[in-house]
Amino acid sequence: MKVFKSLIIILLLSVFSVMKGQEGEVLLDKIDFNDSTLIDSDFMKRTLAEYITSKQDTTQSQRIQMYAMILASDNILNRSCTSYEMYKSVYQYLMYGFSEMGANIVVDYLMSLPYFEFVDANENQKKEILEIANSYDRVRIGAKSPDIQAVVINGEDFNLSDVDSKYTILFFWSYACPHCREMIKELGEFAKKNDDVAIVTINISGDLRNVKRLLKKTHLEKCYNIFDGEGWNSRIVESYAVDMTPAFFLLDEDKKIIAKPFDIQELINEIER
Asked: What is the pTM of this model?
């Protein structure tokens, strides 16, 4: 019944969009989805973001806005069936963005892999896209966070489920990322003032000595710091569907994902809410 109601709302929004005109479609017309050089390009991402934004109407209820985002995503994916790599790139971009926003209604829709049946994909590619969809489903806001079992930098065993704290912050970062290093400093300042919040850092790339040195300078060495040396192939990275750094996850005392802040200030706002 919920799916039927959703489809009715999407249909009505589609009709409303046609009545308003097709200004937003001009933005999509700028993208040649047959051009493989545009895959993962800044131009592609920027244009898709502009198109999605053009479909937003802040005078409407949040739920109606979410259905408008579904319609926008539908239009984008309909055009992205030119190749498997194009579809996968666009699909991951949409999944990441709406997952970060906590737009679970949109994520639910994207889980159905709209238009993928029209993509020329082999069996391995079909398995890959299903795993991408499932990975985002595992870490949507409101979901129980995947457990983490690892050895932290100081040599001690770590298990996320054993952490006893009202809030737990997971921070995925790369040493080569200047923005990440700056956030590590800000996170260190936060840690000094909030010893009741557990902090877990997961380094994805960098030299271990440099990582240790930075953590020590920023007063995070007493937190749970993970460096498994597996980089982007780390099972922790894969289980949290992290495909760029920096990335935050805020967990409650039951280890449920309650937010995916973009920066320290948004993180603080979520905790103080």
From this structure: 0.69
